[in-house]
Structure formats: C-alpha cells, structure tokens
Design a protein that fits this description.
Layout: E1 2-6, H1 13-24, E2 27-30, H2 31-41, H3 44-55, H4 61-71, E3 81-84, H5 90-103, E4 109-114, H6 117-126, E5 127-130, E6 136-138, E7 157-158, H7 165-186, E8 192-196, H8 201-215
Parallel strand pairs: 1-3, 1-4, 2-3, 4-8
Antiparallel strand pairs: 5-6, 5-7
Helix pairs in contact: 1-8, 2-3, 4-5, 6-7
Bound molecules: adenosine-5'-diphosphate (2 copies) and zinc ion.
Zinc ion (ZN) binds at residues 130, 132-133, 135, 150, 152-153, 155.
Length: 221
C-alpha cells in the first residue's frame, strides 16, 4: 500500500510511519530525514538545503521533487511506501501525481494527523533525534531508557536545530499557508482520512490501523 502522511510539524508523522513500517513493511520516506543525512554528510544537496531548513522555510520544489522521483524508483518501495513530509504544497502534490502516473502507481490512503498548536510546540521543544538511525524520542512523552542514548542503536540523541521556538513558529506558519491546501487537494479523492493525533502514540496508531484496514478492504490485519 502507498500512503501519504499529512500533518503539521510535531503531529507524529514520523513516529506513526515507523509503526506502520514495523507492522506492514511499507518503507517510510521522510524528505526531512533525507536532507538531514545529506547535511550531516556535507553533500552539495545538504549545503543547499541547510539555509532553508535552518530558517524553517521550504526547500525549493525542483530539488525536493527530483529527490522523491529518484527515491520512488528504488526497488525497496515496490511493495509500498509511506511519504512523510512530502508533498508539502500544491506544486509538490501535483508533481507526485505525475510521478505516479508515469510509473503506473497510485496513492491508496492519505492520513492527515491533526494536533492543536500548543501541543505541537510542546512536542517539538522536547523532541530528541538519534544522530545515527534518525529514531525519534521525547524528553517527557517518549523518553529513552538511558538519557541521551538511542534505545535502538546506542547512537547519540540531539535536538534538531530547527526545533527552537522561533523556527518552530515559522514552520507552523509555513504549514498553515502552504501545506494545509494539500489536505483540501486530497479531500475530494475519497482517500483522505483525518485522525485526531492528540492521544498516546498507541491510541493514534489504533486509528491509523483501522484506516489501513478500511482502505485495503479488510485484507490487512
Ligand atoms: P513529525 O514527524 O510529524 O514532525 P514526530 O513523529 O517527530 O512528528 O513527533 C514529534 C515529537 O512528539 C517527538 O518527540 C515524538 O516522540 C513525540 N510524539 C509523537 N507522537 C506523540 C504522541 N501521540 N503523544 C506524545 N508525543 C508524541
Ligand atoms: P517536521 O518535523 O516539520 O515534519 P521535516 O523533518 O519533515 O520536519 O522537515 C524539516 C525541514 O526540511 C523543513 O522545515 C524543510 O525546510 C525541509 N523539507 C522537508 N520536506 C520538505 C518538502 N517536501 N519540501 C520542502 N522542504 C522540505
Ligand atoms: Zn538510533
């Protein structure tokens, strides 16, 4: 199954994409993660993306769309993928339709996770990320077993540069202006499901699981 995850920064897209992957094996593709890896490796892509990411602005469409088009050609997404952080504006949503048209694929389900702004700010300010494997933690809501160390790979946890209060505000504004129209874009297609993301990760996942079952005609268990 091919899934698009929508929702503001901090809604829990990455957290839930990992859970879907663990159960169903559909590969999460996070454009933010791709940029952070490129940045850590100091590649030209990383250096180009850096200024936009640090400001909380969107990286230009042609760059992002090229990356996603290449990524969707890799064999590990043949049986399914979960897009997290893409598409983020109408141009990208239309570009994705075109990519899929060319490859004969389609989006089966669009999951829109909604969370109020106050909760988003709390989640983003306490978020910690593993330098090595990219896993997400939260100081209060999902703390690692050992402070500062990733449960999965033992890597060092760090706070993303763009998770500071000022940049968070910009990102939330950018989401509202540019990404919210993407929700309306998918709405008439009948594939869009909005889910309340304020419960615990388990509660949110239960709703997502039900949505996947529904979209697959009850075949996924
Ligand atoms: P996104 O990918 O949408 O930006 P993340 O999955 O990175 O969001 O989650 C943001 C932060 O909130 C992380 O620190 C994560 O551990 C935490 N988090 C995710 N889902 C929940 C939840 N349901 N309740 C509380 N905290 C959550
Ligand atoms: P979030 O926690 O907001 O979901 P991401 O990890 O998805 O954060 O994205 C971090 C940053 O990477 C964004 O603020 C933006 O600069 C850049 N980025 C990620 N995905 C895209 C995209 N589809 N289009 C443009 N920029 C993107
Ligand atoms: Zn790790």
């Amino acid at each position: 199954m091919n899934i698009v995850m929508l929702g503001p920064p901090g809604a829990g897209k990455g957290t839930q994409a990992e859970r879907i992957f663990a159960q169903f094996g559909w590969k999460p593709i996070s454009t933010g993660d791709i940029f952070r890896v490129a940045l850590a490796e100091g590649t030209p892509l990383g250096l180009e993306a850096k200024k936009y990411m640090e400001a909380g602005e969107l990286v230009p469409d042609d760059i992002v769309e090229g990356i996603v088009a290449d990524r969707l050609k890799k064999p590990d997404v043949k049986d399914g993928f979960i897009l997290d952080g893409f598409p983020r504006n109408l141009h990208q949503a239309k570009a994705l339709d075109k990519m899929l048209e060319e490859s004969g694929g389609k989006i089966d389900l669009v999951i829109n996770i909604t969370v109020d702004t106050e909760t988003l700010v709390k989640r983003l300010s306490g978020r910690r990320v593993c330098r090595k494997c990219g896993a997400n933690f939260h100081l209060l809501f999902n703390p690692p077993a050992v402070e500062g160390i990733c449960d999965h790979c033992g890597g060092e946890l760090y706070q993303r540069e763009d998770d500071n209060e000022e940049t968070v505000r910009t990102r939330l504004k950018v989401y509202e202006e540019l990404s919210e129209p993407v929700v309306s874009y998918y709405n008439p297609s009948g594939r869009l499901l909005s889910i309340d993301g304020t419960g615990t990760p388990d509660e949110v996942y239960m709703e997502i699981h039900a949505a996947i079952e529904l979209a697959s005609g009850g075949a996924a268990v």
